[in-house]
Amino acid sequence: MSLTLPWIGSRPAEPATPTFLDDVFAPVASETESTALRVSGSLPEALNGLYARIGPNPIKPQPSRYHWFIGDGMVHGLRLKAGRAEWYRSRYVGSNSAHKALGRPILPGPRAGMSDVVNTNVYAHAGRVWASVEAGALPVQLDARLEGIRHGTFDSPKKQPFTAHPHRDPRTGELHAICYDALKRHKVQYVRVSKEGEVSRVVDIPVQHGPMIHDCAITRSRVVVLDLPVTFSFKRLFTRSPFPYAWNDRHQARVGLLPRDGEAKDMRWFDVDPCFVFHPCNAFDLPDGGVVMDVVAHRRMFDRSRQGPELDTGARFERWTMPAGGGRVVRELLHDVPQEFPRFDERLAGEPYRYAYAVGFKPGLPGGQALYRHDLQTRQTSRHDFGADAVPGEFVFVPRQAQGAEDDGWLVGLVHNRQTGTAELHVINADDFTGPPQAVVHIPARVPAGFHGNWIADADLR
Length: 462
Ligand SMILES: [Fe+2]
What we know:
Elements: E1 33-34, E2 38-41, E3 49-56, E4 73-81, E5 84-92, H1 96-102, E6 121-125, E7 128-132, E8 140-142, E9 148-151, E10 167-168, E11 175-179, E12 187-193, E13 199-206, E14 217-218, E15 222-227, E16 230-232, H2 234-238, E17 245-247, E18 254-259, E19 268-271, E20 280-285, E21 291-297, E22 316-322, E23 330-335, E24 339-343, E25 355-361, E26 368-375, E27 380-385, E28 390-399, E29 409-417, E30 423-429, E31 439-443, E32 453-457
Antiparallel strand pairs: 1-5, 2-31, 3-4, 3-32, 4-5, 6-7, 7-8, 8-9, 10-11, 11-12, 12-13, 14-15, 15-18, 16-17, 18-19, 20-21, 21-22, 22-23, 24-25, 25-26, 26-27, 28-29, 29-30, 30-31
């Protein structure tokens, strides 16, 4: 989620106290590394790999100009092996501006879009580690110790804009993504990447106003496109906002279904009540040809704040159905409590599924306060609490074994502790969700609230 823009016009009036440089968002002063990691409980011996999570960590933020989505990217990683926590490291993700500020040579590889800052997601694909962002910048390849290697969209020779949120089809190993370039307001693109890292298909999809499309979902047969009313804003641009996207009442909110091998003319569009979705959970085809997609829906977004997403948008978990017969999206409330960062067992991407996990928030307050498990079969929600001073971030589901049941696994994520100013990696048994954690790794460093993290097993890397 990153854009940096040249300043146009005169300096704006000083805004209110910045929210996204304080409290749980306050950046750390430097990269750190530790091998002295105390573990409470018992780390599963089968967790061999790297947990990595990324977020903004601005090097020289100017409070009057800072928007959370533009901060220099920093990735935090924990290496686990045979029941031990070997190391924790934090490393800046190599934008030109970060490397210049740190006195390092710039990373090789092409650049595209308005900025090369990458700060939103980190994951494995084609045997390597990648960090990525939306709006036009290209991904950055990292090594297994989180050092930057190069910029570039996997093995594509083209400057292909990508996204923070590609979705891997577990049946083929391909990535599917909806991507856009902030400078090209009349189209977004469906991009497919082979399991080897080649960009194998690009479909241009005409749109109006330059919508911000943060994420998408896949089913067995289709890709679900969210065209919602946060769009490129010349008004914000000309009033010197570093983040030129805003709520747009004139933009028709709609959801598109693109057949995986189809063209834009083959899409079916469904109008939906105005709202904004950063993150779908899973989606799947219905036997009658309709599509179901679960989402965290915000009433409005980027309407009032120029510093980051508003924290009082009534985010709630909903099931959206795009009926086989066409028409409007049918919205059903699943859980009416503020939440974000929905995840599920990604072996079931594009398939019917039972369990969704999301971070719960208090309205208007920064930082998570609990983790929810939604049982979509019984429609019951369970809550995992971390304690009064704990601020959990996104948790990812890691299966215990390849053929195990949907809840036969662990939930892994970082928890910031407001009292100690340090962080912890929590490993929770998904099938004992409300019980004590299986293990907690104590990190002798602060990890600011950030965006997305993933488990990268040794087997995922070449
Ligand atoms: Fe995201």
